[in-house]
Amino acid sequence: MDSVASHSYEVHLEALAQAALQQYIAKSSYSKIFLMVDENTKKYCLPIFEEKIGVQIDQILEIQSGEANKNITTCVKVWDALSKNDGDRKSLLINLGGGVLTDLGGFVASTFQRGIDFINIPTTLLAMVDASIGGKTGVDLGPLKNQIGVINQPKMVLIFPEFLKTLEPRQRTSGYAEMLKHGLIRDAVYWNSLRNTNDYGDAACVQKSISIKNDIVMQDPTEKGVRKILNFGHTLGHAIESYCLESPQRKTLLHGEAIAIGMILEAYLSHELKGLPRLSLEEIKDTFLKHFERVDFDGHDIDSILKLLRYDKKNSHGNINFVLLQAIGEAVIDVKVPDNLLLKAFAYYKE
């Protein structure tokens, strides 16, 4: 399967990924090679990595899994471990894990001694098609998603679809939400094929989603314009994810689960403000509710979620900016939304 080329790195899949890493390490002169894992990837993915790759690792660093640990406290522990194990500016950090780990690992590498090289090896579907691609690194500030970070590209991203076999179904479905988003914002044909398949972990689908995201990022690496369309569903979705993360009485949602809700809500806003056809709106809602359980929000929940919108990273000059759809496959950026429509969007989701 062909590699996907960005401006400064490539995404290699399957057998090409194995060869690419081995060749890269052989021609490089890193002083130390560190591998970062969490308790899950250490148990389920590290044996596969060691068997397939055959690269000498000097030190394995382990963090705790989960969004609750994607914070500066964890970064300090990793920076400290790098220092204590003689990491220097010629070291390499390989991140083996899901989106939390690749986000945090990329940020740690980008800031340790003003920046060391890193490679992402995503092990979840979400990380393969989204989190590990595009150079966004960072951590959360309390419950607020990705408030601290930098955009810095890895040396390469390596995709091994067999890691998907280690995931529970809920984790695979979470990644499916981001794949559906790629179709909604850029490719109606892909949306139609993907929403009618049960094999969204297929390598060809993974490659297609990577290609869509990569093409958008190459046009706008620092998110000044078109790259914002990748945030469809994320303005409300991130607020929902943050609210559920900080509320003891709420079940914590995986990223894709929260974004799926956000996409239904923002599809409703798209219908009201940008002319997304009613049939398309219903198609979007039906597709997501087929795969993602509906979550009940009462008035207090909705009020708390809407208050979190002011922390969205797309905001400017006090305005909350949404990404909406004119049609399936056609997204527009920087849309202002009246407050009353936000409440109507939640009412529509509840119907």
UniProtKB/TrEMBL annotation:
Keywords: Cobalt, Lyase, Metal-binding, NAD, Nucleotide-binding, Zinc. One of its GO terms (cellular component) is cytoplasm. Gene3D superfamilies: 3.40.50.1970, Dehydroquinate synthase-like - alpha domain. The keyword Lyase applies. One of its GO terms (biological process) is aromatic amino acid family biosynthetic process. GO terms for molecular function: 3-dehydroquinate synthase activity; metal ion binding; nucleotide binding. Its EC number is 4.2.3.4. Pfam families: DHQ_synthase, DHQS_C. It comes from the Bacteria. Its cofactor is Co(2+); Zn(2+); NAD(+). Residues 61-171 form the 3-dehydroquinate synthase N-terminal domain. SUPFAM superfamilies: Dehydroquinate synthase-like. Residues 175-315 form the 3-dehydroquinate synthase C-terminal domain. InterPro entries: Dehydroquinate_synthase, DHQ_synth_AroB, DHQ_synth_fam, DHQS/DOIS_N, DHQS_C. NCBIfam families: aroB. Catalyzes the conversion of 3-deoxy-D-arabino-heptulosonate 7-phosphate (DAHP) to dehydroquinate (DHQ). PANTHER family: 3-DEHYDROQUINATE SYNTHASE. This is 3-dehydroquinate synthase.
